[in-house]
Amino acid sequence: MSLYNRAAEILEKLERKEGSVKNLVYSSRDQNIKQLYALVCETLKYSSVLESIITSTNLLKEEKKLKMNLAKVLVYDLLFGKGLKCGGVWKVIIMRHKSRLKSSLAMMKVKQKVSRNEDLLCSEPQAFEDLTLPRYVRVNTLRTNMDDVMDSFRRDGYTYLGKASSLEDLRHLSGKQFICDLHVPELLVFPPKTDLHSHFLYTAGHIILQDKASCLPAYLLSPPVGSHVIDACAAPGNKTSHLAAILKNKGKLYAFDLDMKRVVTMSTLLLRAGVTCHELANQDFLKTDPNNPKYRNVKHILLDPSCSGSGIVSRLNQLTDDKASSSSERLQALSGFQRKALSHALCFPTVERVVYSTCSVHTEENEDVVRDALKEHGDQFRLVNLLPEWPHRGLETFPTGSYCLRASCKTTLTNGFFVALFERKSVESKNYKRSCSEETNIKLTSPRKCTIKLKKRLKRNTVNPVKQSCNEGIDTKSPSAKSCILKLKKKKRRKQNPIVHVKKE
């Protein structure tokens, strides 16, 4: 019964605007967080439908001890869920009204001329855009590979359609079809509502159910294998496991989170995903010393700080915390923390690339934070123009605002998201010098240059031409260089041991 009581308490707190669905569920300390979260979300989806059924059957009038929110979660599980799981007095009360509740639901379907329970939601004013989102599945390359996963789905009766060439290919998936994403490697796309939570690939950690937009930060940061990386606000851990997969479990991955419960949850997720290169820290990233020798090799930081979550349509913001999440006071507090976190990340002396991302649609948490960071650190960092072919760009509230990425349900078929990538300017200079050096070496190793250089060295006659040519990176194996070296050796021996011709008398 505690499950229903906790769900009812969360619904009441949502009505009082005491927090978001996710934060309230995690702070409940329930033993089964996922089940509680699902029950709250599903009850919210059918909230108006449940309220109509409860009102039409006079349930609360006859059962005066029963409150509306508790009645909603009980009636939801009876009519739309897998049946009541609780015992005791509440089950007896609800079962006493079972036939009337089911009759009321049937009459509602007849009036609205629908046959399925899901069709009752169509009258909601676009509150459930998440139902149209494809199911994104990231293949966990720490446990398996793309070919094995695709073969497994084929054996389950799914049809593979190849790699998508446009977003329209993702929009038209149906039945048991799946396709490779056109932007993010190791990401498979299935039709909306595809449920893979009980699939053995998911339970074994071979696949991770992660929205495409959430895959972008780690993919765009792209740390080389063996790098030292910081995930500044890591929980629940999907981005952390993605970073570990990119690193191939080599190097070091420092994952920070202030909430101990979330760290424990993240530890379980990373264990299932096969991550071994990580070091979890239950501490505030802002209190981390950038000059600590421990982080002297950190060149990549992923920062996905706490935000309003206004872009995640599956969190049902339209019915819960939309007003609260967009209130000026809350946005001001969140953006203040985000500015501090981003500025702190850019203060690490060896960091070369920093990704800043949020699941918010508000400019205050996105472009405004990036603009202020560039004002403070613009002499050292610049923005990278991300995925030029991406259809939804950042707002041009400052000159390079369009270098950032935005995502939304309508334009990119994902949750709402924002990503910006900072790169240290000296890195660009190093890359340029390296390319110039490579070009110079190529020129010096050409046979003609090699021969000229060796002939000039002959005049000095102070060093071994073979030894010095090797030291200077000259290709001594080229035919012309070999010939030149042999001639030089002979001439040098003649000079060192001149032949004296004696005339015969």
Judged by helices, strands and strand pairing, the structural class is: alpha/beta
Low-confidence stretches: 123-131, 432-451, 465-474, 501-505
Tell me the major beta sheet.
8 strands, mixed
How many β strands by DSSP?
Answer: 13
How would you describe what is shown here?
With 505 residues, this protein is of the alpha/beta class. The chain is built from 22 helices and 13 strands. The strands form two sheets. Strands 6, 7, 8, 9, 10, 11, 12 and 13 form an eight-stranded mixed β-sheet that branches. It has a five-stranded mixed β-sheet with strand order 2-3-4-1-5.
Any key phrases for this structure?
12% strand; 8-stranded mixed beta sheet; disordered C terminus; alpha/beta; 505 residues; 13 strands
In brief, what are we looking at here?
The chain has 22 helices and 13 strands. The chain is an alpha/beta fold and 505 residues long.
Tell me the layout of helices and strands.
Layout: H1 2-15, H2 21-26, H3 33-45, H4 47-56, H5 59-62, H6 68-79, H7 88-96, H8 98-112, E1 135-139, H9 146-155, E2 159-163, H10 167-171, E3 177-180, E4 187-190, H11 200-203, E5 207-209, H12 212-221, E6 228-231, H13 238-247, E7 252-256, H14 260-273, E8 278-281, E9 298-303, H15 322-325, H16 328-345, E10 353-358, H17 367-377, E11 381-383, E12 405-407, H18 409-412, E13 417-424, H19 425-444, H20 447-460, H21 465-471, H22 479-496
Parallel strand pairs: 2-3, 6-7, 6-9, 7-8, 9-10
Antiparallel strand pairs: 1-4, 1-5, 3-4, 10-13, 11-13, 12-13
Helix pairs in contact: 1-3, 1-6, 3-6, 4-6, 12-13, 16-17, 20-22
